[in-house]
Specification:
about 10% helix, 2 helices, Dup_hybrid_motif, Glucose Permease (Domain IIA), mainly beta, about 180 residues, eight-stranded antiparallel sheet, signal
Length: about 180
């Protein structure tokens, strides 16, 4: 097979959906309040056991909107049903109320632990309100937990590659990561 024929075959496979492409999205902080900050990253409380996710909070519960973090229009699939809680509950396997954005490559981006409100439900949007900052599921306090995973494999480079560390701002107009989708 010559080079030109090979290129046409690859293009045809991609167009037919036989191959998937990995894309990256920009993620901004989830809370539009200037006191929002990163309080856990690769390790719980920045020095404990393995966590491999971003936890962003501002010290309040059931008050500030928990926003979609991905810049651009994405479909946020909703998994709710948990009662309002600020310091943990048993619901949805520890995730509490959460949203998932699924990419074509098998990677997804999740936002966990929020409290339902009138904004809650599956939707396509650009950084829209998803609910209120809370602590549903296996949360030890109100915050937004965000992770990037493919099955059970978690990926920390989505936030470490842009320099997000403990104490970084989690404000909604600040970039905190570039998750794989």
């Amino acid at each position: 097979m010559n080079r030109k024929s090979l290129m046409f075959a690859v293009v045809a496979l991609v167009a037919a959906g036989w191959a998937s492409t990995v894309t990256a999205a920009t993620a901004n902080g989830p809370i539009c309040e200037t006191s929002a900050w990163v309080n856990s990253t690769t390790y719980y409380n920045c020095n404990g056991g393995s966590h491999t996710a971003l936890d962003i909070g501002n010290g309040t519960c059931n008050e500030w909107n928990h926003r979609g973090m991905l810049v651009g229009n994405y479909y946020y699939s909703y998994a709710g049903g948990c009662a309002a809680a600020c310091n943990g509950s048993t619901c949805n396997g520890g995730a509490g109320n959460y949203y998932t954005v699924t990419g074509g490559s098998g990677w997804n981006f999740r936002q966990l632990h929020f409290i339902n409100n009138v904004s809650s439900g599956s939707k396509t949007c650009d950084r829209c309100a998803l609910g209120l900052v809370g602590g549903t599921g296996s949360a030890t306090g109100p915050h937004s937990h965000s992770d990037n995973r493919n099955g059970t494999t978690r990926h920390s480079a989505w936030y470490t590659n842009v320099g997000t560390t403990c104490g970084s701002s989690g404000y909604c107009n600040n970039r905190v990561g570039v998750p794989t989708l």
